[in-house]
Amino acid sequence: AFLRAFENGTQDPEEFDHEGHVYDAWCCLRHYGDPVGKDRFVRALKRFVKRHGAEDKYHETMTRAFLDLISSRRERGADWMAFRQANEGLVEQGLDHLLLHYSEDRLFSDRARRDFLPPDRTPLPGNRRTGDPPAGDPVEPTTPLSGHQNLEDIP
After folding, report:
1. Where does residue 67 rank: exposed (0-12), middle (13-18), buried (19+ CB within 10 A)?
2. What is residue 5's predicted lDDT score, i.e. its pLDDT?
3. Are residues 106 and 120 in contact, defined by beta-carbon separation less than 8 angstroms?
4. What pLDDT does 102 receive?
5. Cα dihedral angle (93, 99, 16, 77), rounded to 10 degrees?
6. Would you give the DSSP letter of residue 151?
7. CA neighbours closer than 13 Å in the CB half-sphere of residue 98
8. What is the C-alpha to C-alpha distance for residues 102 and 96, in angstroms, rounded to an integer?
9. What count of other Cβ atoms lies within 10 Å of the Cβ of residue 155?
C-alpha cells in the first residue's frame, strides 16, 4: 500500500521526509529490481513533487546518486529494518554520504539540480561514470525516464 501510494502520487507529504524518500526508493528497488526500480522511483518522485506543487524541490543529481547508494547497499531478501539498521547514517543523514562523492559547489549547482552530474570526488558505487562530462552535456541517467525528461512532461 505504501509503495502504491507513492507511485500514484497520493502518499501523504508528511510521511515523505528523508527517511520516507529512502524507504520508497528501497521499496522500488526491492520490488522491481535495478534498473527498473530506479526508473519507477524517479518517475514517481517527479509525479509526487508536481502533484504537491514542489517541483523546485526535485534535484536530479541527489535523486540518482541516492538511488545508486541505496541500490549498492541493499541485500536481496533483507527487510527494511535490517537495511535501516545497517545503513543508519544513509537513512538519517544522507547528505553527508553524498558529500563524500561531491563537492558542495557541484552538488548544489543549478546544473546538478536539473541534470545528473557525476561525482567530482569519489565514484558512486554502481555503473555511473566519473569525472566531468563534456562541457554543456549532461550525463544521461543509467535508466531511461520513458520519455519523461522534465517535470512538465509528467501527467
Report:
1. buried
2. 82
3. yes
4. 98
5. -80
6. G
7. 23
8. 10
9. 6
Segments of the chain with pLDDT less than 50: 128-155
> In this structure, are residues 49 and 58 in contact, taking their beta carbons and an 8 Å threshold?
yes
Nearest Cα to 52, choosing from 3, 1, 11, 2? 11
Q: Which three cell numbers stand for residue 18?
A: 528523508
Residue reference for cell 529512502: 22
What cell does 44 get? 514517481
Q: Which grid coordinates are listed for 149? A: 525528461
Residue 78 C-alpha cell reads as 533483507
pLDDT of residue 12: 80
Distance CA 118, CA 75 (A): 24
Rounded Cα–Cα distance for residues 130 and 117 (Å)? 9
Distance of CA 35 to the CA centre of its chain: 12
Instruction: Check: pTM over 0.90? Answer yes or no.
Output: no
Task: Determine the angle formed by the axes of helices 36-51 and 60-73, rounding to 10 degrees.
Answer: 140
- The pLDDT value recorded for residue 77 is 57
